[in-house]
Amino acid sequence: MSGITTPNPGNVIAASIVLPVLCTATVALRFYARYVQGSKVMLDDWLTLPALILTTGLGVALIIGVEKKSLAYPTPLPPDPHHPLDASVYEIRVTRQITWAFMLIQIPALGFVKLSFIYFYRRVFCTGSGLTKIFEHITTVVIWIIVAWALSFFFAFLFICDVHFAAFWTSIRTLNTYCGKLLDLQLGFSISDFITDFFVFVLPLPMIWRIQMSTSRKLAVTMIICLGALAVAASATRMVIFSRAVVNLKRSYRSSGADNLTTTTGIYWSLIESGLALIACCLPSTYSLIKQKARSTHALSRSSKNQTSSTDSAGQMMPGGARFVAIDSQVTADFGATRPDAGIAEIGDQIFVMKEFGRTEHRV
User: pTM for the whole thing?
Assistant: First the structure.
């Protein structure tokens, strides 16, 4: 593909394994954050589960394609070089079958991610009165637009060859005969995907800057929301790649037949977009937990330097050999510790905090 490096088999396999694993970890962290924060698991969280399953399916499809030497490998020569459009080589058929299945899986996967973003915004900003009521109505309209977008493209791809499903993978000639609008549909999907991603991304920004809070706080919230820009960047990249791929494939489908490497590049970047979009969807929900744990770890690391001297001054050991650790009340609060009557805060099962609870008692 002109201007774009075609991924080799190792790149495709690595992305097909690493991205689903990262997505699984991020979604799990999202649910863990809800548990730690005592927040209710709501629809924006549940929508990430089908998105995760479908994204994993995309990775599996690419792995199968590489294993069959259909993806990330050059297109095999046709049996009859004078009629390349009629070639029905095994590797070409598998490539077309994977492409068809891939598109049918990716469309709902991206739809679930977009809906998760929107329901997360409703969770944060919709309180049922005033400006938030207007925002609720706007997001309701956007939800229906996203649902209609996903359903329309799903069925458009499903019936791109009318009911001649096998025409999609029999040969390029049958593809051109029964599925002539395929490449235009793929390009339209990638463009509309970017447009909807961008709109979903900017949707909450006016609400943030109308909320009654300090400018610095507004900037902080904006930066958290901007973590979702990763999804916009991924869809923009895929859109550019697809536009180039369509040009190459149209040329191939008119004369030389299939182009497995160009097809590989297109769906490879589609997998990257789907994975990064799901990760970006979960980042705002997990940001506070990650930040809290990072601060707590840093504070505990600093306090551990004084652990030995503090233990000596205390001169006591807790049951089971656990030491008294003298740290300030802010660290205790970061860990979510609770203060017993005796002035000892317990963190988990092993760490006990000895604290003089005086005038700073309210901070713990």
Answer: 0.77
| Single-letter amino acid code for the residue at 347 | I
Which domains are present in the chain? 9-297 (1.20.1070), 305-363 (no CATH)
Alpha carbons 179 and 157: distance in angstroms, whole number:
10
- Residue 7 Cα distances to 58, 246, 265, 304, 345, angstroms: 16, 17, 6, 47, 54
Residue type, 320: G
Q: Which residues sit opposite 317 in a β-bridge?
A: 323
Contact 60, 271 (CB under 8 A): no
**Per-residue model confidence as pLDDT tens digits over 36-54:** 888 899 999 999 999 999 9
**Terminal CA-CA length for the chain:** 60
pLDDT digits (tens, 9 = 90+) for 250-262: 888 877 667 888 8
- Alpha carbon distance 184, 245 (integer Å): 11
Q: Which helix (H) or strand (E) holds 352?
A: strand 351-354
Closest by Cα among 236, 241, 284, 286 to 264: 241
Could you say which DSSP state residue 341 is in? T
